[in-house]
Design goal:
Strand order of the largest sheet: 1-2-3-7-6-5-4
Number of helices: 6
Strand content: 25-35%
Largest sheet: 7 strands, mixed
Order of helices and strands: HEHEEHEEEEHHHEEEEE
Radius of gyration: 17 Å
Shape: globular
Distance between the termini: 32 Å
Helix content: 10-25%
Number of strands: 12
Structural class: alpha+beta
Bound molecules: biotinyl-5-AMP
């Protein structure tokens, strides 16, 4: 793995790492408001990828912010045609699985998916996914904390953050992560298009971070259970009922 100082995501630096359909065209900005905005309403074809070193208005879900110092994180968006027969919301889980697999391969640490859109290592959030739907396309935004030091990670947040560097003590070449990420994502998106969540269901079950954990949703406490085949999350409440959660936020006890 190269060090952060030689780490670049320019088209030249990533070209050798891009092996599939995703990444053509490849849009690179040293700084932008959000990579999502480079692709939404862009008219670009499926597989277009936007990457930046720094976002001035990085977006999380529900109006929240995504923050990372310049040059430390992998901040990327991928444009996909929204399939007519699949709920685009499932793409958050599909993308989270692709990120988890990529992170696990790079670090040799087990990575899990915290329903519906986070990637966790050692109970800390290393990556988040944001899917935005507009005009028949889905823009899948992926933020992975790669080379931030502990001090550079956001503090005082409900789900503690980590970077790959903070977890392993190693710095990572981001281009060498981006290539496998896009290849893995492409394979999983193709499988999901053909077979829906069923196609990745085993992996989803194996990586379900909330399974068996104490959780709280909208004031109800319970234990996280399965992710259903339609992407919803089951919770066994302390009152002995089964609650099915469609979307939103699940807090977990550490
Ligand atoms: C997410 O939202 O986790 C989706 C993040 C998607 C970011 C990518 S970067 C490339 C693309 N372009 C964008 O503008 N966005 C996408 P959510 O689950 O709402 O989590 C947001 C919350 O995570 C914030 O309210 C903070 O508490 C926390 N947070 C912010 N920055 C973080 C970071 N670097 N690491 C971990 N947590 C963070």
């Amino acid at each position: 793995m190269s060090t952060a100082s030689t780490d670049e995501l320019t088209p030249d630096a990533v070209a050798a790492h891009l092996t599939g359909r995703f990444g053509t065209p490849y849009l690179y900005e040293r700084e932008c408001e959000s990579t999502q905005l480079l692709l939404l309403r862009s008219g670009l074809p499926e597989g277009a990828v936007a990457v930046t070193e720094h976002q001035t208005g990085g977006r999380g879900r529900l109006g929240r912010k995504w923050e990372a110092p310049p040059g430390t994180a992998l901040l990327t968006s991928v444009l996909l045609d929204a399939p007519a027969d699949r709920p685009p919301s499932e793409l958050s889980l599909v993308a989270a699985l692709a990120v988890a697999e990529t992170v696990e391969r790079a670090t040799n640490l087990a990575a899990q998916v915290k329903w519906p859109n986070d990637v966790m290592v050692n109970r800390r959030k290393v990556a988040g996914i944001l899917c935005e739907l507009s005009d028949g396309v889905v823009v899948v935004g992926i933020g992975i904390n790669v080379n931030q030091t502990r001090e550079e990670l956001p503090a005082g947040i409900s789900t503690p953050a980590a970077s790959l560097r903070a977890l392993t003590g190693t710095t990572y070449g981001r281009a060498a992560l981006l290539g496998p990420l896009l290849t893995t994502l492409e394979g999983m998106v193709d499988a999901w298009r053909d077979g829906g969540l069923d196609a990745v269901y085993g992996d989803l079950g194996a990586r379900n971070f909330l399974h068996g954990r104490r959780v709280r949703v909208d004031g109800t406490s319970g234990t996280g259970a399965r992710i259903l085949r339609d992407g919803r999350l089951e919770i066994e409440t302390d009152a002995g009922e089964t609650l099915v959660v469609e979307s939103g936020e699940v807090a977990f006890e550490r």
